[in-house]
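Many introductory courses stop at the sequence. We go one step further.
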Amino acid sequence: MSATPLYIICSPRPQVGKTLLARLLSEFLLLKNGNVAAFDVNLKEPSLLDYLPKVTETADVIDTYGKMQLMDRVIVDDGLAKVIDLGFHAFDEFFKMTDEIGLLKEAARRHVAPMILFVADTDRVSARAHETLRLQIPRMNLITVDNEFVVRGELPPAMAGGRLFRLPALPGFLKTYIDRLNFSFTGYLRHEKDSSTELHQWVRRNYLAFRELELSLILQRS
């Protein structure tokens, strides 16, 4: 990688698949690179820490100390990919902070490449939050996640115009299966001999999409 990647997965709304996406991405990076540093900024359990305790630590952005502690950990060019699972309760405070400190400029100075993955919904709160990010984050750094399990139909036009990451929906019984705390996406790929199963193809499709995201980051920085 030409710069250390930082993935910030966020939404102002609960229950939109944000932590699911953080799990998938963290497991992909763990498989590909052998390590990843994940940060869990959530109030409700189960959260990313419950699923991936060996690579995840909790973080807080409510006070100045917590904010600076988190920034000191993630804005560092050490070659270790970082993933932040940002709880909906911390959305406004976090991006107010990043705007105030000039996160993107500071990250570029330190050779870190942030990518903000905004998990979409069709409500007014999501629309306002997305507009805020579009004004603050350059187009190449902002990716709208279309979780088909949540957004049943077309994305709002304002969200559909930028970079997109599509997260295909799974049937309800498979969703229940992968929500178990001891479930591993990579473990499933390794141990399920039938590669034609819907879940196997779904995990592989998302891992390949993450790889494309990484490649776009390399091209962006070259």
